[in-house]
Amino acid sequence: MNWFSKKLKGAASAPDPIVRSAIGGMHGKAEGSAELPFFKVLATDQLHRGRGSEADKARAQLREAFTPSQPVSRISMFAGREAVLTRLIRAIEDQQLHVVVYGERGIGKTSLLRILTRLADEAKYIVCYTSCGENSNFSDMFRSIAGAIPMLFHSDYAPTQSEIESGGTLADLLPAGEVTPHQISDLFSKLSSTRVLVILDEFDRSPSGAFRRMIAELVKNLSDRSTRVQMVIAGVAGNLAELVEHIPSVRRNILGLQIPNMTAAEVGELIGRGSESCGLRYDDDAIELITRISCGLPYIASLLGQHAGIGAVDRGSTQVLRSDVTNALKLVIDETRQRLSDRSLRAAKRLQVAGKYAELLKLADVALHHAGIVDLVGSSTELGEALRIGLEAQLIEPVGEEVGERFRFVEEGVPVYLWMQSIEGAVNPGYQQRSPSGA
C-alpha cells in the first residue's frame, strides 16, 4: 500500500479536521460549524451525487461554454471571425504568403490561431505552434521545429533509407551549436511532398532585436527560395509597423492581417454558441446588453456571458435575463480594477475630482474601437485636448514613428475599465458613480 492509499484509508477511519470539513461541505454541516460553500462539480467534471438538477448541469457546462481566460480550441465553439479566418487561409493556401496577425489583447488572436492549427492539421499540414517569450532563442526554437518534421519529407532521402526507418527528423541534419536563418532556410528548401506551417504566437513578448531580425531574415529567405514552409506571426500591436518596426525590409514578403473588433452579429453568435453548449437561454435583452458593453471584444463578451449565466443558475433559472448581465457587469468591473496599477487608478481619480473625467472617457472610447490606438490625424480639437489631459496624467503615451500623432494607454486594461464603469450608470438603476479606485 503506497502513501496515498494509506492516507485515504486513515482518512476514512479517523478524518482530520480538514477532511471532516470537506465531508461536511459535501453532505451537510460540519460538526460545530455553519454550512460552508461547497464545490458542486468534482475534479472529474462530474456532478456530486444528488445534485443533478438542470441548473447544476448548466453550471458544470458553463465553464466549457465560455472560456474568457483561455483561447477557444474547439471548432464547434469558435464564433464569428469567418471573414478573417477565410482571408488567413486563402493567404496561406492560394497566395502562399507569410502572414502577420496583429491586434489588441483580448481581441481573439490566439483563438484564431488555435482554430487555424486544427484546420491546417486536418488538411495534412505539419503545424509547428510555439509561443514567444522574453528569452526566445532562434536556434533552440527552430531546432525544435525541425525536430517535428520527419526526414521522410526531405527530398534527398529515399523512404527506405535507414535514417528514415529509424525515425530521423530534419533536426538530425543540423550542425551542432547555434544555427542561422540561412541554414534553416537551406534545410527547409529541401522539403517535398508536404507543407509546413510555423506559427509564432505572442511575438511582441520578445524584446530581443537580434531574435526579431533573425526571424525577418528567415522569412525573407523562405520567400526568396519559394520553400514549402510558411510562417504566421502574431502579436499585440496597433498596426503592422509596430510588430515589425525594426525589420521594414520584410514587409513586402508578408501579409498584414489586423483582427478587428467583433460585429454585433458575431458577439450574438458567440453568446448563441455558449447558450447551446450549456443549455441556458440568453434572452434578446441580455444579448443586446452584452454586445453593447463588450465593444466587440470577445474576451469581455465571454466573461460577461459566463458571469451572467452563473447568476441565472444561482437564482435557480435556466434563462439569462438583462438583470443577470447588469449584475455580471459589477463583477467584471471589480475583476478588471484588480488588474490595474494603483498609479493608473489614482491618476484617473484625480481627473474625476478635477472634472476632467469625460475627456478620459473620450480617449477610452476611441481606443476600444481602434485596436487600442488613439490617432490624432483627422480627429477633432476636442480629442486633442483629451490627449493633452491624458498625457499630463501619464495615462497615455505616444507610439510608433509618427511622433505626436498616435497614442495608446500605458495600461491596456484602463480603457476597458473606464468604459464599463461609465456604462454601469446607464444600466443599473439607483447606481451611484464610484471613483476609479473603487471607493
Could you explain how this protein is built, in words?
This protein is of the alpha/beta class. It folds into four domains: 3-38, no CATH class; 81-258, P-loop containing nucleotide triphosphate hydrolases (Rossmann fold), CATH 3.40.50; 272-337, Helicase, Ruva Protein, domain 3 (Orthogonal Bundle), CATH 1.10.8.60; 340-427, Arc Repressor Mutant, subunit A, CATH 1.10.10. It is built from 18 helices and ten strands. It has helices spanning 3-13, 17-27, 54-65, 82-93, 109-122, 138-146, 162-165, 181-188, 209-224, 240-243, 264-278, 284-294, 298-314, 322-338, 342-353, 357-369, 381-392, 413-427; strands spanning 98-103, 126-131, 196-201, 229-236, 254-258, 281-282, 319-320, 374-375, 396-398, 406-409. α9 (209-224) links the parallel β3 (196-201) and β4. α11 packs parallel to α13, α12 (284-294) packs antiparallel against α13 (298-314) and α12 packs parallel to α14 (322-338). The termini are far apart. Residues 3-30 have low confidence and may be disordered.
